[in-house]
Amino acid sequence: MSGKWRSPLDIISKYLLFFFISRPIERCFSLSEDHIFQVDLAFNIFFLLYFILRFIAAQDKFWFWLSLNSVVDFFTIPPIFVSIYMVRTWLGLRFLRALRLMQLSEILQFLSILRTSNSIKLLNLVTLLLTLWLGFAGIIHLVENSGDPWLQFANKQPLSYWTCIYFLVVTMSTVGYGDVYAKTVLGRIFATLFIFGGLALFATVVPEIYEILSQRGKYSGSLQSEKGKK
Known about the structure:
The chain is mainly alpha-helical. It has 9 helices and 2 strands.
C-alpha cells in the first residue's frame, strides 16, 4: 500500500485529535450515536491494516518496532478497540498523534508544495516546536485532569487542552503569570522537564529560524524592466 494514501489520512487524523481533546478525559458513549468516534474508528482500522502491511514489508523487523509511526500506533490504535469493548472511552495517550506533525514536511514535499531546502528546514524547525508544545500539553492535560494515582486521584483539576497549551507557552517564555499552574505532582514534574528541555530547544531553534528568514539569495529577487536610453 503506497504512502500517498496515508499522507492525507494522517492530516485528517490530526484534526480528529483536536475534537477528542475538547471532550472529557473519560466518558461513556454510544457507538451508534457518536459519529466522531465512528470516523476515528474507521481511520484506526485503516492504520492497523497499514501497520500490518508495513511490518510484513519491513526488512529490519527490530527497528520497525522503534520507528515513530510504530510507537504512535502502539499507543493510539489499541485503546479505541478497548473502548468499544468497555463502552467507555478514555483520552489516554492520543495526544501522541501530534508526533505525526514531524512528517508534515515529507507530506508537503510529496505534494510538491515544498521545493527548496530552506523551506523544508524551516518547516521542520517549526513543526519541532509545535510537536513539543502539543505533546507536553497533552501530558499536562492528562495528568491534571486525572490526578495523582497515589492520592486516589483526589487532587485533579479541570483544565482544557487549550489552557494547557497556554500554560506551556507562558512557561517557555519565562513570563509565568501564575493564573494557571500544575496542582498534581506528576504535572509539576512534567512541567519541570518541559522547562529544561523546552528552553534548551527554544534557544537552539529560534536563532536558526531567524537565520533562515533573514537569508536572501543572490538570485531570489524579481527582475524589473526599465526603459533604455537611445
